[in-house]
Amino acid sequence: MKILYHFRTQGTGAEGVHIAGVAGAFTKLGHEVTFSSPTGVNPGQSAGANPFGEKKQRSLLSRLAAKAPGLIFELLEIAYNLVSFMRLRSRLARDSYGLIYERHAFFLCATAFLAQRHGIPLVVEVNELAGDERVRATPWLAPLARLTDRLTFQRASLIVVVSPHLRRRIEALGVPAEKILVLPNAVSEESLETPADGAAIREQFRCKNALIIGFVGWFVAWHRLDLLLAEFARLAAAEPRLRLLLVGEGPLAEALAAQARELGLMDRVIFTGSVPHAATASYIAAMDICVVPHSNAFRSPIKLFEYMARGRAIVAPRTEPIKAVVQHGQNGILFTPEQPADLAAQLARLIGDPGERQRLGDAARRSVSEHHTWRRNAEAVLAALDRAPATHGRSV
């Protein structure tokens, strides 16, 4: 089957990893995937790339996203419907597709009307909705965003969400529950099969015999790395072997470095800078404990699954999407979100128990291997699509 995969993002960072993972899984199942996006990027090549790179290296779309006033950018998002309609109409006129798979975006509804017109099943993957906490501010035109969501979801054959929170919000729009599939994020089978050794990373940063707590991701406010640094300072005072390995970069890099200096931690905290996504497995393998400092009610952090794939002991917030994947004391450790003292207590529990770290890491790897691969997700999408009401070609 030929699948048209449409997205209106940069195709970098975690979103690029997600898109490449889903598309790669469809390909491995024998399907042919064609991408369509404003930038024309191939997520198989851009997945995990630094979204905070130099301006001269960034696309026009990313520069507009960063600089345009909120209302102006939203008007541009709305106008993109015309661009995508013309582009996708041309593709559908040239080729015959058995499925359109779209990453949901605010105000985007042109694809749904085209899929309906051509009688092609449409799968819409939803990672956030207007009204929830997000990277950009809540849309000025939130009522219009909800209207376009409703129009799109009515015409979709299947809606895939990463959390139960998103499922409930979409049901509240009047969408039948049987059209909504909850699928947490995942990892590729290749990442599970490819060994990674952290010894060279430990050697590079002169922490061969250290006990390393680590984070991989972007240095942005919603990850609450400031809380992690503050609690690490207290833990490090009692354990001289402790090091904190922060892999990535972002807008808060300088502020976090300044905080580390103020806490007297510059010899205990390692800032690696941006690392190619393919190389992050070795950095994760160098860690003894991997941390997700913060998440929210609707996100399914991709790094959580990458930590699990490397068999690391994990400490993560007790949010609904994470609880669906990590069972406290079985394949990871959970703490109360935005409670730094609890985060520190759970880290301390693992710092003093290497056997427990090994047990939890082994269980985490088994869990992700058995339940959370992109191939399993792709198979679940296709199976659910077969069971879903045949809404393509008409609205519900």
**DSSP strand content:** 5-15%
Number of strands: 12
Strand order of the largest sheet: 2-1-3-4-5-6
Task: Briefly note the structural class of the backbone.
Answer: alpha/beta
**Rg value:** 21 Å
**Spans of 5+ residues with little confidence (pLDDT < 50)?**
none
Terminal Cα separation, in Å?
25 Å
Main sheet overview: 6 strands, parallel
Amount of helix = 40-55%
Helix count?
17
Report the average pLDDT across residues: 91
Specify the overall morphology.
Answer: globular
Please provide the ordered H/E string of secondary-structure elements. EHEHHHEHEHEHEHHEHEHEHEHEHEHHH
Report on the architecture of this protein.
The structure is a single chain. Helices cover 46% and strands 13% of the residues. It has 396 residues and is α/β, with parallel strands linked by helices. Strands 2-1-3-4-5-6 form a six-stranded parallel sheet, with helices on both faces. It has a six-stranded parallel sheet with strand order 9-8-7-10-11-12, sandwiched between helices.
Short structural description:
The protein is built from 17 helices and twelve strands. It is α/β, with parallel strands linked by helices. The longest helix is centred in the first third of the chain and has 25 residues, at 70-94.
